[in-house]
């Protein structure tokens, strides 16, 4: 039976009401942009300029995913730190064991689901993602502020969930497992190799199926209904009871699918290939495929 994780999504109306209450949650702006460079590769751009110049949800603290919540020793982007290191980083930002947390971002929601997944990976279950993100908040004419915010440091206990992430050996094992499905969460043109944007070699992990994270959302940036999400994942037989390994370019969009499966639909066996194609596609010994082969 599916394990339903409650209160993983919060509406803009509910957040607006809670911000004025004595028990207001800690709010974090997780905005990040990954810009393809014409010569190849990518540039990471934080949400700092928009946070300062356009503004942010009142009270929100900016998180820098690469600088604050990624392993500085890794040569790859956005690699998750060790659980104890990650817990200290979140605690330094003000998240404690009893904190209620709301995560949002501008643009693609999976920057917020990445932070949710990182928190879930260390056993923290009191975080919610703002459904619709900043796009919906602004479309409704809700207020922004420009003052930079911080929260006082807190104490956060790491209770690691080793199942949250998998390495390339785990992906290879899943590809050989009839009760597992490996899901590419990138857009169709990246999956089939027709896009000029890739991570070393075009295409996808051979044997994987495509459920683009971008297809999980309504036009207003809210998640589709649980019934609609379930139908989407049924197309690749990613049902509860099967192991699902989600990947993308660097472990970000993959958390959109993983969040939908684990947190919204309650699937039990969902994991993220953290280094994803930025590792896989640059290793010629690992199999890739395109639409034509």
TrEMBL record:
Keywords: Repeat, Transferase. Residues 53-146, 203-289 form the Rhodanese domain. It comes from the Bacteria. Pfam families: Rhodanese. The keyword Repeat applies. PROSITE patterns: RHODANESE_3. GO terms for molecular function: thiosulfate-cyanide sulfurtransferase activity. InterPro entries: Rhodanese-like_dom, Rhodanese-like_dom_sf, TST/MPST-like. The keyword NAD does not apply. PANTHER family: SULFURTRANSFERASE (PTHR11364:SF27), THIOSULFATE SULFERTANSFERASE (PTHR11364). This is Sulfurtransferase. It comes from Vineibacter terrae. The lineage of its organism: Bacteria, Pseudomonadati, Pseudomonadota, Alphaproteobacteria, Hyphomicrobiales.
